[in-house]
Every structure is written in structure tokens, then in C-alpha cells.
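User: Round two. Same drill as before: sequence, then structure, for each protein.

Assistant: Same drill it is. First protein:
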Amino acid sequence: MGWPNDGWRLLVVALLVALWPATGTAQDAASLLGAPTREAVEPPPRVIETERSAAVDSRIRERLAAIYREVAGLESVTVEVREGVVELSGVVPSPARAQRAIRFATQVEGVVEVENSLEVDRNLERRLRVGWQALAAAVERLFANLPLLLAAVCLVLLAWWIGRWLSRRHNWLVRIAPNPFIAMFIGQALHLLLVVLGLVAALVLFDATALIGTILGAAGIAGLALGFAIRDTVENYIASLLLSIRNPFEVNDYVAIDGFEGNALRMTSRATVLLSPDGNHIRIPNAKVFKAVIVNYTRRPERRFRFDIGVDTELDLLPVQSLAMRTLSSVPGVLSDPEPMVVVEALGDSNVVLSAYGWMDQRSASYPKVRSEAIRSVKQAFDEAGVVMPEPIYKLRVIDDAGATESAGDRIGNAPVHDRRMQDVSADRSIEVRVRAEQGAADEENLLSPQVSRES
């Protein structure tokens, strides 16, 4: 559907071009058609003499006639001078020649005003002859400048070929920038720079250095407009450049980006591609990847899993926790350092919720498989040991008020105090130990420096 819009734009431009002559004056239209016009052209301001002789007018007429005889296309111009007013008449081949004749007249000393009565020759035969002569002269100039033109084209092509050859020297570029993406960017920039230098050399060869500023200015404006038009593409490209420098993940790392999880497949100049556990490709724009929170599950080989277990409220929890920890330690793939841990998470309406934690090595085991085997093993061990894992149960207790002689507060106060086996509740420093080890092995600068004052 792009063609109708372009067609309307072309139609509007054509109408503007067609109506442009109508915006001019009647004098312009008459000049365009070659009709004689009485146009007064004032020379540059100068003082008009109070006394004037016919000899001065004669000298002006003779001087202009001599000039017109020497200029091609102005030989038939007739000059009349009265009191410093010059009247030009005759036939000239083009409006440009008429303007040239007027300019000569205004430059002569003593001229007060120039009356333009020149006619533009519209004879078809003569116009064709003049056009053919102009075309032949242009072709002759082209052949005369052909060696320069060929040399300029060869310069541009040579610069393009050298830039292309250098941009493909990956081994040489990788020595400058070990990052492949940065090396490719340097190669492209070098290629573009050499092409620009070739164009500048070609313009210098043609002695057209004045066009360099114009071309650079136009290129800057075009680049600005293009930057606004493809802002998202430029943002993704810059983000990919920064991501390739920081390298937050590598190929096949299992990461979570902006709520999407999968193995890192590739990073292009526009997007990062993940391979989801379902086997689907997830394409995320690099600008979003750069701004998002990235969770890299593969950067550290050890990974912790967790699951909850509900047991009966009547059970002694310490043996249950001990059985669960021994079972977790025997599961294949579960690490002994850090050792598994089972804690009381919450008291439910009809059960006690235990949370089981264990560590596994992702380099030698599968996270979902180890977690699944741990759940199955704990379930089997509880079934064999008679540990009740109840469904939601609601107990109804009927109390006889007449037989109640002791209040609930008295019962709690009179309850005997028994020695209870205390479980180790010391702080778990395993994560902190790994964080310190990670900081010692990391090459990146850590902005969370202990020397910096904490935020209040």
C-alpha cells in the first residue's frame, strides 16, 4: 500500500512545480515566452551629474557596442543612449545572454538606467542548432575530462576494495579487539572511512573541494533524520555493542531475561535469541536485554533447589527433619558441601510445613531431575517410616462447661517443662563464602565497594 502514498506525494510535487511559474510576475512569463519587455534595470547607486553632453552618450554607446561585438550571442544587440539612459534591443539566443548584456550595461560609468527591450530567439531551427552546439561542447568537455573522471572512479574503487579487504581480515582485527563483535564494528568503520577518503580525493582531483563541506553538511542532516527514523535499530545496535563488551552471559548459559528463560543461543546486532526449555526461539531486543535484570543460572555451577513438605502436627519434628536430611544426602546429584537443610517453614491449619533445601552441580546433573528425585525419595522415606502427610483436616472439639474446673491459662501455667533437644540454628555462611570467592575471582570492577559510605 506504499505506492498510493508515494503517488500522492509525486502529484503534489508536480502541481507545485507546474504552478511555480504562475507565482512570478507577468514580466517573467513574457520573458519566458520570448516576448519583448520594457524592463527598467537600475545600475548600482551613484551620483547623477547635473550637466551632460552628447559626447558622453556617444562614448557609452560605442563602448557597449564594442563589448557586445566580442561576446558570443550578443552581436545583434543594438544600443541607444539618451541622457545616460541605455536602451537595449535586438534578439539574443537565451534569457541568460539577455541578463549578461544588461549586466555589462550597468557596469559602464555614466549609465543612469538600462531599458531592456531584448527578445529571446525562439526560432526552432536556430534553437536546435544552438542546442546541438552546446551538446557537442559538453561532450567535448566530457572527453577532455575523461582521464580525470576515470582516475577519480579508480580512486574510489581502490579505496572501497582496500577497505573491504581490511574489514575481512578477522585475524588481524581480533588482535586489536578480542571481542568478535567489536572487531567487526572496527572493520566496518575502517571500510567506511577509506571510502570517504576516496571520495574526498576524487573531489580534490576535480578541484571541487568546495563541495566537500556541502556534502558533509548534507550527510549530517541526512544522518540526523535517519537516526530519528531508525532510532530503535540504532538503540539495539549500541546496546549489542555494550553487551558484547560486558559479556553478561555466554553461549548455552541458562538465563532469565525480562521474565523469559532459556539457553543463550546467539546475539546479533539487533536481538538476543534464547532457546526455551520447550524448544522455542525467544528473540529479545538488545535494548531491552541491556535494561533488564539478567539472572544467569549457569555462571556458578552450584545451584540450590527447594521444595515444601507438609507433615502431621502430632509428630515430633526433629526426627522428621533428620530423616529428610539423611534422605536428601543419599540422593544422587545432591552435594554434601553445602549439606542439605530442612527447616520448619510455617504452621498450617492441619499440618506443619517443612522446607527442604539442597545443592546440586549443574555441570554433572540436571536441576529438574535432581529436584524430582529428591522429592520422590523423601516421599518414599516418609511413607516407609510412617510419617503422616495429612490432607487438610478440621477437628471439632466439644467442651463440657460443667466439668471444666481448670482454665486454659492454669493448664499452660501448670504444664511441666521438659528438656528439649535443640537443633543447630547458627547462621548459614555458605552463600557468603561463595560471594567472597566470586569477588576474588571476578575481573570486573565492583561498584559495591566497602570503602564507599552506605546509603542511609
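Second protein:
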Amino acid sequence: RGVKEIEAASGACLGVLAESDPCVAEICGDDASVAKARELIGHFLEQNAFASLEVPNEDLPMVVGRGWAAWRTIQASTGASITADQSREPAVLGVAGTRP
């Protein structure tokens, strides 16, 4: 579930500060709405996983494969979503998906 779905299901208002590490979610509403939103967020976190890995930019081709082929193979075979932030050194690879 995304933020909008959690807001609709709980009646609470969510604000997510995705740039912070760790990510911060602010929940506002009455006590029952906040409790329901916390429950739904907890359920979401139990079912989904995210990991990040720092890779020196010069080593990135070894990790993702020629023409990003290994990256595409991993995404296709696992259903995970992989991102790469090459604007920093080291580059940051992010992997997100559902838990088995």
C-alpha cells in the first residue's frame, strides 16, 4: 500500500520525509486514525524489504553487468526493483521488493 491508500484506509494524514535516513513518516489525526495508520505502515514494512549497497563507481560495471544485463536479469527473475544513484561516490544501489 502507498501513502494515499494508507490515508484512505485509516483516515489519518501522512507526511513522509523520504530524504531523511532513516525515512520518517509523520502521522496526524485522531487517536484511532493514527493507531490504524501505524498498524498499516507496520504491515507494509513486514511485507516489503529495501536494502542499499554502496559500490565504487569504477566497480559498478562489474556489479550490474555489461549494458546493465545482470541488473535486468535480476529484476526479471526476482521481481525486485533496482535503482542506481551514480551521482555520488560511491554509487548507491537500492533493491526493493516483497519478502518471500
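Residues 3-48 form one domain.

User: Perfect.
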